[in-house]
Amino acid sequence: MIKLLVFTLVGIGAQIVDGTLGMAFGVTATTLLVLSGTGAAHASAAVHFAEVATTLASGASHWRFGNIDWKVVLRLGVPGGIGAFLGATVLSRISTEAAAPVTAGILLAIGVFLVIRFSSRPPVEFATSEKTAHSAKFLTPLGLFGGFIDASGGGGWGPVTTSTLLTTGRSAPRTVIGSVSASEFIVSASASVGFLLGLGSDFFDNLLIIAGLALGGVIAAPIAAWLVSRITPGVLGTGVGGLLVLTNARSLFKYFGIDGAPRTIGYVLIVVVAVGLTVLAWRKSRAAAAAAADAPAETAAAVDTDTAAVDTAADTETAGKGSADTAQVPVR
Fold it and tell me: Is the pTM of this model over 0.85?
């Protein structure tokens, strides 16, 4: 029962992050599971199996609201599934001790990516154009890389693919998020098959973890929906990225035997940089929100000015006509 409670809390934390950012369920859940003592391969396997259900529901919801470009789903999801299967197979076949630094290194890199992405360019600044979808030449390698990183590192599909597609500006954000969410079902299912083949009967040792993650995700879904209107994505994304860097740096320090002053200095540097960039993201988000709030007022003022100009021109024209008519009347 205690273990189920721990895994449920992990699911709650991961779902709150994913529900407010639209990504990072896998990296958050895997990091927390590894810290709780779960092996890297088993943690990633449990997360992906739980995501099969959550991504199916998410994809169906996005389809209902018209947020999916099926060309993007197929061009991204199929190679993503292949990459995820390969990543799961590789992670399943290496020892737990060897997998720990590999997974920690990948998660740390994803954490750095999240920090840089959300602190330098908050999501509100992304383009909103409705341009043509990306070609298969672009989406295929992106899907392969994202799928492999997602399975071998326990997460990363959203941070890699969503961020890349958003920054290019070739599709509206809602279409990018919806298409990536739908394609993630293929990735999660393929990774689960890879882990099932790689781990064999040991895969079923993860049922308690899967149940806890699913239960926590269900509980946290409405909380995340409420938080998304209270916490800006830039601040949350930067903070989560910093937390991933700190926790996975801890795993790497422990694995390589880094102790004493070097470890302390490393922790201090990570915390200082993460806090500083989180504050920067907060300021940028506030500035972007203020600019967005001022835009309607400026538009209304411009409309009022144009209306006043039109009215003045009309009055001048009427007065001119009146003066001309008066001049044409003979004086008797």
Answer: no
